[in-house]
Design brief:
The chain is α/β, with parallel strands linked by helices and 758 residues long. The chain contains 24 helices and 23 strands. Strands 11-14-15-16-17-19-22-23 form an eight-stranded parallel barrel, surrounded by five helices. A four-stranded parallel sheet has the order 1-3-5-7. A hairpin with a 7-residue loop joins strand 12 and strand 13.
Length: 758
Amino acid sequence: AHAKAWQTYNTHFRPTQNGKVSIVLGSHWVEPHRGQSKAATAALCQQSIEAVLGWFAEPIFGDGDYPVSLKTKHAALMPTFTPEEKLWVQRTADFFALSFGPDNIRLGQSLVHNGQRITPDLRSLLGWIKLEYGNPRILVAEGGWFSDASVGREDTVAIYLMKSFINQVLKAIKFDGVQVFGYSAWSLVDGFEWNYGYGIRRGLFYIDFNQPNRTRIPKTTAQYYKQIVTDNGFPSNETSIEVKAHFPCKFHWGVADSTLQVRFHPFSPQFSDSHVYSWNLTGDGSLRPIPGVKLNTRPAQCTDYLAIRSHLRLFASTGASHYRFALNWSLILPEGCRSSVNTEALRYYRCVLTELKKLNLQPMVIMYYPSHRAPYLGLPGPLHASGGWMSYSTVEAFQEYAALCYQELGTWVQNWITINEPNRIIDIYSNITERHQAAHNLLLAHAKAWRLHEREYFAEQRALVSLALHADWAKPANPFLESHTVAAERFLLFELGRFLDPLLGTINEKKKGKYPHEMRVYLEERAKVYGLPKSPLPRFTNNERQELKGALSFIALNHFTTRLVSPNPPTQDTLQKKPAPDHDCLTLLDPTWPSSSQGQAVVPWGLRKVLKWVNQRYGRTLPIIVTASGIDDQASVEDNLRRYYLRSYLQEALKAYQVDGVNLQGFYMWKLQDRHAPEFGLFTSTQDQSKAKASVALYREIIAHSGSYNSSSTQPCRFTEQQEKCPTCEWMFKNKPMVVFGGCLLITSAMLATLVVF
């Protein structure tokens, strides 16, 4: 029937109308599961698409007959073309018209075999058509997804599905050379969706079917589609504009690690073992102590810990000046108080710090680094048993622990982090009231540790003390809705303002010692909506306010990605359950953003945005340091994703410093070494011989040029004051025994010469 219509048009109407005729064919996309791309599985995927798209496309765009796989599998059912029919059907389309949407995906699900998966990968399907049928011109005649009828006009998720499909088409054109000449969004208005009835909506315009006039109202997808049409795609944003400048000379170029593993072994015993051994007396290669012979031993030294030097040599080879690592609170004080102190662990940490000093490198030390890998999130067992961060006794115990850290290690530490990511610790509490109380106590614990240093140790040690916050940027998920803009700002206040406002106040509201005004008002209003007697947010006492005011030496931010934020409107069901309110936000990811194997989106401009937000809210009096930033990369050596991340994120950091006037004073790459398989490490695991990945060379080059990865750029500061090098001093330090021996020899020679003269 199609061929008849095309032949009729071609013969009788094309000469005068000069139009084009095709047939719209729908298809799914199927591919092997990751790690299962065997030839047999790939062949099954090919047959799956041939059974749907190829059934009609092969006779028209191929050799005029059905796919061989279809005829083989269904020989008894498939009609046959005569030779004349093959010629009649073949090439009866002026372009390839494709339909791709949820109906195609559902159809494909029934054809999936083991080892296969159906994905909404329009780009791959377009590439398959190009390879299979000789690169025809293609029109995506129907493209789109659906929303549940309850979503109404604010169809945020549909925006990103639309963006994903159109972006895949653009990639197919630009990267794969597919000749796509058009895209039609399905559909203009909501309608009757076959067996789904009115339960789902696919229109750009919303229709209330309960209203007699069926008014058409544009959804946010209509606004977004209009924007894409106006821009003719996705124009470059300001990220693509490169800034050529340099960071300040005292900039922290760092590498960040989690809790430093205390490796008492391997241990070098040659100066601590008093025995003398004979070797191979019995021919078995063994060492046997000689009875009755003893040597004098010396006290234990840092060189006995063989792991420390090799670990720090890896770090030094990056060219970074600062190493961020964490102490293990539960290891140092297993009982949670100073009645039981692990002096061996403290000695190990002292050795790490003194070895760093010998290498002319600076530490940034975290006192408490909570981790899901550690028992009780890294808290000493007794403190966890007594309530953890819900108990004020943990606040007092942390102050006692901080005092021990300052006393035992403060001589070598100029930058302290009291608590790493308290805004992530509180996520473990499902009860919102408990979450607010835990955040409250974490803030008080930090403030007590900061005040203690100011009062008793600052005059001698002059260290800077902060706490590090997880600081991903929040972008309104739906740019056409004010409620999403408000939600994104609220998300940032709960994530960052909750901890920074009580310590610093804001530029507009100088009162310190209080939670953000917007946060307090929001929680009070939500408490009324939920029928609660009061806001779940605790209040600070007057003494606590005084303790909190200004208790921060610099602003430490751990930044990795950007999140899309939307409001989470309460349903009747949630209102009946009456949960205590929090920020009431949902987060999602833009599927067009490049991402890692663990799903972390690479969004360079998000770093600049969050730095600018902090700068605008709190001013530039205090320096800001990005204390952790990185991405997982499965490549064992050629970690191209991490290199792109490093270049692009540091370029955005440079814009924040140079263009926006942010007082940015440091950037720490997360992290030094993989634990097992390739992930975030700059170096492979010890099992894989601790090999440097390609990103190490790039980071070293950027550091050498103070923020630029262009080797032709000038180097404004060879060495900072902290890192000023003295070649003579270095040589003398490395050759201490020779210098001492030479000095003794010189003195002896002088004395002998004097005796000879007399």
